[in-house]
Amino acid sequence: CLFFFVHTMKHIAGYLLVALSGATPDAASISKVLKAGDCEADAEKLKSLLAAVEGKDINEVIAEGMKKIGSVSLGGGGGGGGAAAPAAGGAPAAAAAAAPAPVEEEEDDDMGFGLFD
To answer: What is the mean pLDDT of residues 80-90?
Structure first.
């Protein structure tokens, strides 16, 4: 998991963009992608990244990373679940009983003039 702490995401993203284009990622092509995104490439970090993935298929590297991410706890337990669905037999009666009575709307008293008159 130290991989992401040593390499910045912009370098990894540049590598992946070059790989997705069908070209073989190298320092020059990654730097070009980063420059197009108004970012500066760090030569040492690029060298380290390329050494870390040298000879590896990017799909295998991603699959290996996904396995590692699966074991990481990412925080809170989430929100509570929704209410249970009502039973099929009593649903119409319960819905009729739960429906509120329509409320009569009061007529606004505009005192003889309207706002947009």
So the answer is: 61
Residue type, 8: T
- H-run or E-run covering 95: helix 91-98
Q: Are 11 and 26 in contact (CB under 8 A)?
A: no
Confidence at residue 44, expressed as pLDDT on a 0 to 100 scale: 92
The Cα 41–Cα 2 span in angstroms is 20
Continuous H helices in 21-88: 27-36, 43-53, 58-70
Written as one letter, the residue type at 101 is A
Cα torsion angle, 46, 52, 58, 59, sign: negative
CA atoms within 13 A on the CB side of 89: 0
Q: Give the separation between CA 31 and CA 11, rounded to whole angstroms.
A: 8
Contact 25, 19 (CB under 8 A): yes
d(CA 10, CA 58): 16
